[in-house]
Amino acid sequence: MKRYGNLYEKICSMDNLYLAFQHAKKGKGWYKEVQQIREAMGLSQEDVSAGLMSAKALSRFENDENYPNSYMMQILFERVGKSLRHFIFMLSKSEYEYHLWRRDTVAQILRGDSVHHVIYQGHKGKYIDKKLHWQFCTFWQGFLDNNLEQMQNAIVCTVKNYPNQLTMRNCLSMEEISYILLFVEKKLTVHPDKWQEEYAQIRFLLNYVERMFDSEEIVEIYGRAVYVFGTYMDTPDINEKILFYKKAIELKRRNFKIEGLDRLLEGIILEFQKINQQAPKDYEQMLNMLRKIKAEFHIDDYTFWQIKPTYEVYLLNEVLKIYRQEKNKAIKEIAQKCCSEKTYRALENGMRDANDGTLAVLFDELEIKLGIYNADIITDNYADLILVDKIKMVGKRAVQGEELQLLEHLVQTLGDKAEYAQNRQFVECMRDIALYLDEKITAEQYRERLKYTLSYTISECCADNTKHFLTRVELMLMYYTAILSRKSGNSEKGMEIVNELWEQLIQSTVRLEDRDQEAAVLMILRKNLSTDIFRYDEALKIATEGIEYCFNSGDASKLYNFLFEIGWIYNELIQEKNIFMKPQCRKYFEYALCISEMFYIERNASIIRKYLS
Question: 315 with 350: CB under 8 angstroms?
């Protein structure tokens, strides 16, 4: 074994890792996989590139001769039915600011805020694709001005034969489909009698999404398409609508997606009423609970139509700074390798972007292996990342035994790559969590395993978290270290660990919603530890923020924890006054129970039932 910075790897693997991930921020090494998917689906380069670029330009991406920017990369992945949700992208500060501008612009428009012109005033770097930028500005300006012709022209920019009938050879991204759905909704809001002109198109999109996208990728866009179909298509076939609604609702529930679920429930209940039938009671119960929760915690509905990147984000300048500090190197010492001290300071502060040559020198000097931050494991096989996602999904649902079987399958599919330090760390991290939660190992045994698993990539168990840029898996291990401190009665120590991790997140320019996996688990542990040390006001504040966060991110997998905590704290305060389970306290447990049943988290549901009884 040979040591490379803080990462141990087999010597034979390092060259491949470097080649695969030195350009991880641009997606190098991954479009080859998309090429294989494209060919397996029988799609040509012309099919996938139509309206975006020439087939020759796409060929250069597939042959690693050139690299698309992050937005183009997402669209290309989605046009072959995949997404970048498994990945973390390394972006420059200016590139990230452009991402935020797009997102905030859409949010302001959908909220009805005062927006007059969709114009980007920031730094215009090479990360801005001229065609996609024009499409975005033109579409949303048309949306603002209720200009249907302008909105349609924006769609035609990349979907060339629209509004003529689309075919399965029209490769469409989720963003392009969202544009079409928004256009149809805007048109039929003004001209509801013209629904027949759009019926075949929306029916096609429903079929297209089902056939072209993986199950996880289907969830968001399928729900939007069903909503438009159910709301605006005045078809007499009510049963067809009900079947679409049921499928969309089930996809949301199976994948912990809460965004827009209440709209789908409203739609299916209305269709049952049209045929004088009673909707299933669980649908009505779910809708009532969602309405109560959203009303109590002031949750907006504008996020239903948001078009968001599916990947998480790290900033390159922040990675450079933390790695330099971890190695105790001065700015002058690093700068002399590639640029002036003034230039390096500007790079580290995010005030300017570095070219690829400068970044390569800096990554080499600071021993930064971008591949360890690219995803939860190191692999060149997209199917491995899908399996990782399934393992994490099973972990959320707390299905005893199944997680261990999937981990064993992952080890087999990884082959020799299972011995990479980061891959061993992920497998052992997930395995030990499952064993501990299923009470197959003691807290003391788990503590020793945590130390050992952390040592694969962090010396001395990361004594100073503020000087190490943690991967998602490393953060998860530190998270469970804090949990064990809590279990052993040392909540103050646990809070110290969590506060260090939380500081890393909130000091970053990156918003919490772009680091959602890390943010959610830390919010849960912070409110638990605050409760342990009787900081009830602080715990209630965190729980309330956590509920809003879950709705805004659309991920309901952690919502139960925040709702239950509020009920538990109020119950503790009430019991101090010798009053037990007043209705205003009990309702939070009922919220948490409904959410657990809604998303099939039976372990949590059974705990609440016992607590209520």
Answer: yes
Element housing 361 (H / E): helix 356-365
Residue (of 281, 282, 207) closest to 240 by Cα position: 207
- Give the start-end residues of each E strand in 76-185: 88-91
The tokens 């420059």 sit on which residue? 92
Q: Using an 8 Å Cβ cutoff, are 49 and 58 in contact?
A: yes
d(C-alpha 354, C-alpha 533), whole Å: 46
Q: What is the CA radius of gyration of the chain?
A: 25
Determine the Cα–Cα distance for residues 451 and 458; give it in Å rounded to an integer. Answer: 10
- Identify which of 241-250, 567-576, 599-608 has the greatest average pLDDT: 241-250
pTM above 0.70, yes or no: yes
- What is the enclosing helix (H) or strand (E) of 38? helix 31-40
d(CA 95, CA 126) in angstroms, rounded, equals 9
Tens-digit pLDDT profile for residues 18-55: 333 333 333 344 556 667 778 878 888 999 999 999 99
List pLDDT tens digits, range 515-568. Answer: 887 888 889 889 988 888 888 999 999 999 999 989 988 889 899 999 999 998
- In 10 A of CB 197, how many CB atoms? 13
Question: Could you give the C-alpha distances from 272 to 115, 241, 291, 348, 445, in angstroms and in order?
Answer: 39, 10, 19, 59, 54
What CA–CA distance (Å, rounded) separates 166 from 415?
Answer: 42
> φ, ψ for residue 406 (rounded to 5)?
-65, -35
User: Which ranges of 488-580 would DSSP assign to H, the alpha helix?
Assistant: 491-507, 516-532, 536-553, 559-575
Q: Nearest to residue 540, comparing CAs of 575, 573, 570, 566?
A: 566
C-alpha dist (Å) from residue 477 to 430, 455, 457, 458, 580:
9, 11, 11, 11, 38
In Å, how far are 560, 591, 600 from 612, measured between CA atoms? 15, 12, 19
Q: Rounded CA gap, 238 and 275, in Å? A: 8
- pLDDT score for 594: 95
Per-residue burial over 443-466, b if 16 or more Cβ lie within 10 Å, else e, is eeebbebbeebbebbbeeebeebe
Q: Residue 506: CB partners within 8 Å, gap ≥ 6?
A: 512
What are the tens digits of pLDDT across the range 253-281?
998 999 899 999 999 999 999 999 999 99
Q: Which helix (H) or strand (E) holds 404?
A: helix 402-414
Q: Which residues of 142-180 are buried (b: 16+ CB within 10 A; e: fewer)?
A: bbbeeeeebbbebbebbbeebeeebeeebbbbbbbbbbb
Nearest-angstrom CA–CA distance, 502 and 512? 10
pLDDT at residue 500 tops 70:
yes
Residue 113 and residue 529 in contact, taking contact as beta carbons nearer than 8 Å: no
> Is the confidence at residue 336, as pLDDT, over 80?
yes
**Ramachandran bin of 511, using left for φ above 0, alpha for ψ from -120 to 50, beta for the remaining angles:** beta
CA angle 63, 385, 73 (to 5 degrees): 40
Residue 19's φ and ψ, nearest 5 degrees, are -65, -40
Residue 215's pLDDT is 63
CA-to-CA distance for 104 and 380, rounded, in angstroms? 34
Residues 6+ apart with CB under 8 A from 355: none
Closest CA to 520 of 256, 323, 251, 308: 256
Of 242, 246, 257, whose CA–CA distance to 290 is shortest? 257
